[in-house]
């Protein structure tokens, strides 16, 4: 089964796009953990006996943190991290792990088959960014280097991303081809992890049941992203016509391998055909944003995709509000934005912020995972199930998170604080994606290693590892509410009238001391001044406020938002 086969010779350009196979991006983008004991030099030889040990831990073939910790020889904290991370990237919404409350996750546990596939792809290495076609133009928008660059030995996150001829995040087509190539190379091993021998015929006669075959849906899907609700078996000729009332006959593992391999080869040919005209044609500023198999419409502020993630890219010295009706799909990527304020007030599954600087980003409610990477001097405000922060500097995070914030890579001067804002539909969006406002673990960050073995750009081979710098708690005296403008009505109206996450007492007390605007208004109204003197005072305050708006740059927000 390890020998490659020749794919069918039919032209991929004539194949129905709905029948093309795609890699699921979520495990590769949000499911990789830089824990050395999870990365195996020979995954198959290691994982097959580990799978058997995991199965022995439970008759139901579902394992909890304690079993994962014992079998993989990792700490219980890391084992729970494995369980939570796997849950955030699972393909089946019906899996009981996804429906479990945090306090019963260990009682439910993870399916062993999904777990071994999750462990296998920990060997994946991310694609190196490619050079932007207009390097000089892009360079103009970037800020000067950080004040800390003089004495910190490592390059800052943005210097690193912008080095090597101004490299940028790879296009979606490039990433998809890279992920498919990885799966193509490792397909025989992956199938063997799910296969089982026919009773009485030995290890050479491996077969896959329909139930085991469906676990490949963790790594692949067919057609448009909206087709994820369909079972993978519906696309396989050997399972497509199975009687739902009868168990399907197991299929030889070699047959499954050959069929999936043919589909991967066909999709890779399709990607190559779509990329070639772009590379041979005139440079296009939108080449970076157009995802493979994702129809996109461009606006003057980023790219919004009909399927797959919506992109907000290259916003500079501006403000932007996106609500649920503005987004196509349930994932968002905010890329390479500078000196801006971005509001994404919508229920989301996944959100990624990459390569941004001097920007405030509000992410509405994110039910699966948020990843913040290679950012400088960015403020992120989000209600989310979980968040991962990687290779960031001088950033501040106001969090309402149900799981411990994960901090990995080379970070410096990070601060974390409790969630500090709201908008009308926030609680509705949180309920829609499954975020519990009674649980906020913002102050329990979990720091892993500085070296990320999946990222050869940030950490070349041979660099020694150490624990990542964690985030310090924001001084309560510095904590203030963040006000989201409600100038639009419509979607902005809703039942949420206040921050749904309870604040720690020390932050409540500080907030009460600092929230003196109402007191100032009351003092002005009651001041023993003649009406003309009150008007003069009011005029002076307006002048000072206007001066502050211009001096701080916040006046731009007013102009930008009024012009939307």
Q: Would you mind describing this structure in some detail?
A:
Residues 282-435 form the C-CAP/cofactor C-like domain. It is found in: Cytoplasm, Cytoskeleton, Microtubule organizing center, Centrosome; Cytoplasm, Cytoskeleton, Spindle pole. The chain is of the alpha/beta class. The strands form 6 sheets. Strands 12, 13, 14, 15, 16, 17, 18, 19, 20, 21, 22 and 23 form a 12-stranded parallel beta sheet that branches. It has a 3-stranded antiparallel beta sheet with strand order 6-7-9. Strand 10 (296-298) and strand 11 form a beta hairpin. Helix 3 (65-72) packs across helix 4 (76-89). It starts with 20 loop residues before the first strand and ends with a helix. Mean pLDDT is 80; it is low at 1-13, 132-154, 162-167 and 282-306. It is elongated and about 100 Å long. The chain has helices at residues 25-30, 43-56, 65-72, 76-89, 105-108, 112-120, 135-139, 157-166, 172-194, 210-214, 253-280, 426-433, 505-514, 517-526, 531-552, 555-562, and strands at residues 21-23, 62-63, 110-111, 130-131, 167-168, 196-197, 206-208, 220-222, 251-252, 296-298, 303-305, 310-313, 319-323, 331-335, 341-354, 360-373, 379-384, 387-390, 396-401, 406-408, 415-418, 446-447, 472-473. It has 16 helices and 23 strands.
Gross morphology = elongated
Rg measurement, Å: 26 Å
* CA distance, first residue to last residue: 58 Å
Q: What is the percentage of strand-forming residues? A: 15-25%
Total number of β-strand segments?
23
**Average pLDDT rating:** 80
